[in-house]
Amino acid sequence: MKKNKILVTGVAGYIGGTFAYEVLKMGFKVYGVDSFINSNRNNIDIFFKNFPRDFNFLEIDLANDILELKKVFDEFKPDFIVHFAGLKSVSESQEKPDLYMANNVGSTRNLLENMNSETFFIFSSSATVYGNNPNQPLTEDSPIEATSVYGMSKIECENLIKDYAFNKGVKSICLRYFNPVGSHQEFVVVEDYLNQPDNLMPKLIECVKNGKNTINVYGSDYKTKDGTGERDYIHIIDLVEGHIAAIDKVQKIENIDFFNLGTGQSTSVVELISTFNKTNEQNIKINYVDRRLGDVAICYSNPLKAHNELNWQAKLSLERMCKDSWEAVQK
Q1: Greatest alpha-carbon span in the chain
Q2: What is the reported pTM?
Q3: DSSP character for 153?
Q4: 95 - beta bridge partners?
Q5: Catalytic-residue membership of 177
Q6: CB 170 within 8 A of CB 117
Q7: Of 35, 85, 164, 208, which has the highest C-beta tally within 10 A?
């Protein structure tokens, strides 16, 4: 029997929406769920319009609406769950720790409790699980020790998934990804710059769109090449292709595996702003302010395991990420 039915959580969001759009184009059937806590219906309407036979949707709070979730499993009978849903702001997680743990861990637990061992599980984890590790780049064997509540919630989810993989036979892959930016070539699903973004790229777009042309940079005294935080930015299309490779891989593993999805390149905040300005002919100025709680100095990947075992690697450049991010909003 062909396995082509995917339950996508967080389907209205930037990453979940881009993934859903790309796999729908490939002929997969997608049942999307979302609570709209930090998203809206725009992507849902696009999917219904373009893929009316292969897309279904339910507004649901995964952490609380257990009966509705059971119905989704009973009716759709997914072959795969790709779990993107979750609150994702490092700074907000420090202010609202109970909310982040209840939402992120609760939603993951409810999915695992309601699925069977015939369904494969792919989890949207994060490089924040590695914390403030002085040994860079990070491999999948790097120590796990988060510095933020957001990172702690991802570790807790990974541990839950590991437990279900070993004790309930749920074959699973946790994808620890770094900093997704950009847009796919049709510019249909874009990163939301209107909803008080916490990430650098949508903040840059917000600056230009609002005519401010000045951006706050949190911290100028990190022990990095220019004093600002260094990250591993990855194009959203490379990230989605990593998920598609994981869909193939998860069917062949024994219980659970973990993969970094990143470029292996470390880019500072100043370098990203400079590249954005140059690529898109902008002139955004920097205003240095205090560091944020939970932020780390350097975080970038060693993606060799994904190269070797998923047959995947990031291909698109920083310039392309900046170009596509801005063009998507223009279109």
Answers
A1: 57
A2: 0.96
A3: H
A4: none
A5: no
A6: yes
A7: 85
